[in-house]
Design a protein that fits this description.
homodimer; 21% helix; 279 residues; DNA-binding; 5 helices; alpha+beta
DNA sequence: ACAATAGTGTCTGTCAGACACTATGCC
DNA sequence: GGCATAGTGTCTGACAGACACTATTGT
């Protein structure tokens, strides 16, 4: 590592040959999650909420015609976060969206072209804010998730096409909660993106319980029933009304707006209220 | 992205020029955490536990003579996990140690030589297992941590040298628990490693509450008092005995061994017991 | 005897799970 | 009227925080 002796750091840097180490290609891939309304026949019923993700159809090799997460190469003068933001902007025309780094995937063969390390991100968007700004190859897929202790199954549907993946969960250590994901079935997703999606779903499921990130997927005004539906669809289980209201009561603020029009009692509209601000 | 049309993926790959994208240097940096016994004068008292981290003194520019986390470049034919394992082996001669990926740091100027993206890892070791296998420039530093809602202060000491860092915590979003760390004071740590250390401490503090990762820092046999000390030193607060014993009772197994010799009642030795195995 | 840790019993308040109940608009 | 959702009251058991107490060693 050393070699020639230098008197100062400035002198060293002037002489430094940055080509002596092998370099790698890096990309960011972003899980853009949202919740969609799915209309239900019965006029009385609320539209069903569906957890959904934005996928892009690849138009070139490798994995031509398969679906993948929006992603792209990280520029040499670009932060990882900035690369992820740039890609989000390109695909959805959205800015100032909640994003967080998920995990860095570095398997040798995850891309058949060459060694590419990918930093994955999660972005949460309110679908009402975009609708028709999508780029050409992008499409929202609803996800139906079946999960047990050993396996996750996700069914994707964009209204035209549907497919499913099956991923086995395998604890990396008995002392931790980290899983190694082994893809058992996957015909339509490119690269290792099946793993990335399953990791992202897992992270979201966890964080919904101890943070307020759900509100990034909500419109400004919403009813508690709608909010509860979103929790239920992400957690994959029904919640009891009183318990749910107890949990979120400090995170929301009643407005003077009311949502009418369903074949049932109208509902008060709420908005997000940061519980740390009131103290 | 496309260009010439190919009939198959094989054909495309044969023709693929991997040099068309700018590449980056990547490193892994590992937080090797452990808990050390610090002898106390009083013969009756238990040795005090100290949370500690392994640092390496840089012997070359940049940051010559500053301390940094053990790390190194990721090989082109090497997994991120493998790179981290290799470095752990080099520094401590340890293998089969608990490790998990922490975060990927990608600021443009984190290394003055050139653009380097660093994937950080956490490794937890039982210090009794190594003692004298350390590589030349490595040294264990105890950490005393002072944390409030806005700031973290860490005091490092390896018995010869001591220094401290101060890092400001700044929530990235009101809806989440992600912090942006701003280094306010740091004279002795190289690169952005002050941030990495603070992130790692935060992760560990969190995960100790809902996983069994502490046991990776414990010897095979330990008393509940010792285990409680480790929790206390990581969490930075005292715990009540009965509450602590309630929490860990399913995670440990009583052995027929007993630890005597302190100026007080002897203590039963326990060992880790995976709570998921008994069902 | 006493200092220090080991280990247990139990009260209390908080809170999640569960169920029952009331309220109200729209066809 | 009755369906479907909105919204509330309250019981219960689990459990964390708190404190008090007993047990046992080496010097």
């Amino acid at each position: 590592m050393s070699g020639k002796e230098y008197a100062s750091e400035e002198e060293f840097l002037k002489d430094y040959d940055s080509s002596q180490f092998e370099k790698l290609s890096m990309t960011t891939d972003t899980l853009i999650f949202s919740v969609a309304d799915e209309e239900v026949g019965n006029y009385r019923k609320l539209p069903e909420k569906k957890f959904s993700v934005l996928l892009v159809k690849r138009d070139s090799y490798p994995f031509k015609d398969k679906w993948c997460l929006p992603g792209g190469f990280v520029g040499i003068q670009e932060t990882l976060d900035d690369a992820a933001k740039r890609i989000l902007k390109t695909e959805t025309n959205l800015q100032d969206i909640y994003m967080e780094q998920l995990y860095t995937f570095g398997a040798i063969d995850r891309d058949p072209r060459m060694r590419i390390v990918s930093v994955s991100y999660i972005a949460l968007v309110d679908k009402n804010r975009l609708k028709d700004h999508l780029s050409g190859n992008a499409s929202w897929f609803t996800m139906d998730i079946l999960e047990d202790a050993k396996e996750v199954q996700v069914m994707f549907d964009n209204g035209i096409e549907n497919f499913s993946i099956t991923v086995e969960k395998c604890l990396k250590s008995p002392t931790s909660d980290r899983y190694e994901y082994i893809v058992k079935k996957n015909d339509k997703l490119a690269f290792d993106h099946a793993k990335v999606i399953v990791s992202g779903i897992s992270r979201l499921k966890n964080k919904i319980g101890y943070t307020d990130i759900v509100f990034n997927m909500m419109p400004k005004y919403f009813t508690l029933g709608e909010l509860q539906q979103v929790y239920e669809v992400i957690l994959g289980k029904k919640l009891l009304d009183p318990a749910f209201r107890r949990i979120i009561k400090d995170k929301v603020e009643k407005t003077d707006k009311i949502k009418t029009g369903g074949g049932h009692r109208p509902s008060v509209l709420y908005q997000y209220h940061n519980p740390n601000h009131e103290k």
